[in-house]
Amino acid sequence: xxxxxxxxxxxxxxxxxxxxxxxxxxxxxxxxxxxxxxxxxxxxxxxxxxxxxxxxxxxxxxxxxxxxxxxxxxxxxxxxxxxxxxxxxxxxxxxxxxxxxxxxxxxxxxxxxxxxxxxxxxxxxxxxxxxxxxxxxxxxxxxxxxxxxxxxxxxxxxxxxxxxxxxxxxxxxxxxxxxxxxxxxxxxxxxxxxxxx
Length: 197
Known about the structure:
The protein has seven helices and six strands. By secondary structure, the protein is an alpha/beta fold.
């Protein structure tokens, strides 16, 4: 971890993205448990240090009125009848479930900012630094990093709390692509840095 990575608790928020049952269940059991343990540790220490925790979840209305037949990835979700609001599969995994005071933002697209009021929530609280992680690395994480960087947010990605169906893609993104716009660290680095707040 770089000595330059610091977290100002008045300007930093933690984003946990797409840790939903149906998405988690697509990962191997061993990988799933490791991710949940990392996420739990990050969320626990963030709350203990007074950092806002914001959940991002992708959910669709019954009948999928938001999904165009032209949208290749979401059309397959529609065909499989997945991630419908109010269903167990669309809920955030119980091991990392939101607590009182946490914000939950629902999106209809891949990135956390697309189709949401996330930017309003962040700017209303004076947040300028995002610590983020999610599933998948090549989906919500990549889209959110790109969008947030264009909006001049300071970014930190917790690599070992992210996962992708393709391990090679995960490594290329976390080791070569994200470092151009974000600090990329591990859970242990984040926990260590919080000791200096």
